[in-house]
Specification:
two-stranded antiparallel ribbon; single chain; two-stranded antiparallel sheet; about 475 residues; mainly alpha
Length: about 475
């Protein structure tokens, strides 16, 4: 019977969660904390005021399960539009087969390393997977890392990264040995057929339009280099100042010249690489957010199309096809926003916070940190925004930490672990749902795949919290 069970559509799953949330508004009493606006690092935030909780009339949700979709789309509109623009931009790039050629060239390059016995023993594929995971993990750990607890955080990062790499390599080896072991075996039929096509038969050429685009982009970068000769990159609590944009412009000129001489496809890959470089500079140096990033990738797609010699109508058609291909993912993101809308309109989130505060009274340090960690993990399934969760919970948790003599750094660590682990299955996470949609992985299958490993990581995270209350650590 279980084998015949079919995972429901992502939208069906999200709608089911909305119904459950609506039922909770009939069960959980209504309540509310007073709120105030404060400024943190130049950013205005709304936080709750301690000891201001009061019971209010509950607001049971009924027909609102349908209007929640509308509210969810409004609240998540920036994510929805972002996903659509990314999908359209990359569809234009994919039409040139540049990414396929880049992957093929990279695989051919890695074969050269197989002449070394040590590399053959470890496996080139294993090294590549591990390297990519370490890079992404390092970026996530370094940006925002606090110096006062650096030693502890490095140890935690190493443990989680090692476990993640081990899990991915184990799964990759299992699927390589028997592809049918993959939970996505049936859905991957498209990619298997695509892999059978001979990419090497693609014609390598460089049209004049690519040289024109290369020159236009260089002129644009030179103008920006003139107006922005130096950039302050904020990495964690540190700031790095230097001629970042002029240096990137110089590198773009050099790499584009050699890429254009080789082939259009390598030049388009060069555009992709510098899009990512400018994304990093924009985020760290100029406080870019979703709007600027979406605009950057849209520009990437348009210039890619012109470089390939496509007409305006052709680029527009490809963009529309890309949007059509990714629209299901953006719909799920919008619907998922309805979950939060139901809980907010039902006035029950503050009641849950108040219950947490009462449960911490009289609790020991280890019990308190465990309750905080468990609550943050569950809350993250509903509210994935770190700043929103911090504004809701930290004022209460920090107060009780002081009362029971628990380090505030330990409280923040419990907050971060709880916010990070369950991000892997949070149905309200626009990033998760968007990525799954782009990769065409059903949410239900993803949860079935990742849940055992996520629970294991959650247990490891709890073990790492114990030293923060039982040992004297630097910064705690």
């Amino acid at each position: 019977m279980l084998k015949s069970f079919k995972v429901p559509n992502n939208i069906v799953i999200v709608f089911s969660i909305i119904i459950i949330a609506a039922v909770l508004t009939w069960i959980v009493p209504g309540g509310r904390y007073d709120r105030q606006k404060i400024t943190v690092n130049g950013v205005e935030r709304t936080v709750i005021v301690n000891d201001t909780y009061k019971s209010i009339d509950s607001q049971p949700q009924t027909w609102q399960i349908f209007s929640a979709f509308y509210t969810g789309f409004i609240n998540m509109s920036h994510i929805v539009v972002f996903i659509l623009m990314i999908g359209g931009a990359f569809w234009i790039m994919n039409d040139t087969k540049s990414i396929d050629i880049g992957i093929l060239s990279f695989l051919n390059l890695t074969k050269r390393f197989e002449k070394w016995k040590f590399v053959r023993m470890l496996g080139v594929n294993n090294i590549i997977i591990s390297f990519i995971m370490i890079i992404f993990s390092a970026f996530g750990a370094i940006f925002g890392m606090a110096e006062e607890t650096l030693e502890y955080r490095i140890v935690a990062w190493l443990i989680f990264t090692f476990l993640a790499i081990a899990f991915v390599l184990w799964y990759a080896a299992r699927v390589k040995k028997n592809p049918e072991k993959s939970i996505m075996y049936e859905e991957d039929d498209y990619w298997r057929k695509r892999g059978e096509s001979d990419v090497e038969t693609i014609r390598y050429y460089t049209p004049k339009s690519a040289w024109v685009v290369g020159g236009v982009l260089l002129m644009i970068m030179l103008v920006y280099s003139y107006y922005f000769p130096t950039t302050n990159l904020k990495v964690g609590l540190n700031t790095v100042n230097g001629p970042i944009i002029p240096v990137l412009t110089a590198f773009y000129a050099i790499t584009s010249y050699f890429a254009l001489r080789k082939s259009l496809h390598f030049y388009i890959l060069n555009i992709l690489a510098f899009t990512i470089f400018y994304l990093v500079v924009g985020v760290l140096g100029y406080d870019w957010y979703i709007m600027e990033i979406a605009a950057l990738f849209l520009a990437m797609g348009i210039f890619t199309g012109f470089a390939a010699g496509k007409k305006n109508s052709e680029i527009t058609k490809l963009f529309q096809e890309g949007v059509k291909d990714i629209v299901s993912a953006s719909l799920v993101v919008g619907f998922a926003g309805g979950i939060i809308a139901i809980l907010n309109d039902g006035m029950i989130i503050d009641t849950v916070l108040h219950s947490l505060a009462n449960s911490l009274k009289g609790a020991g340090q280890l019990t308190a940190i465990t309750i905080m960690y468990g609550f943050q993990s569950l809350l993250n399934l509903i509210i994935t925004s770190g700043s929103a969760k911090a504004a809701l919970t930290i004022p209460i948790m920090a107060q009780f930490s002081d009362i029971i003599g628990l380090s505030r750094q330990a409280t923040i660590t419990a907050f971060q672990f709880g916010a990070g682990i369950t991000d892997m299955i949070a149905p309200t996470s626009g990033v998760l749902i968007g990525v799954l949609g782009i990769a065409k992985v059903p949410y239900g299958k993803w949860v079935k795949f990742i849940l055992p490993f996520m629970l294991f990581l959650a247990f490891v995270a709890w073990l790492l919290l114990i030293p923060t209350v039982t040992m004297k650590l630097s910064g705690f």
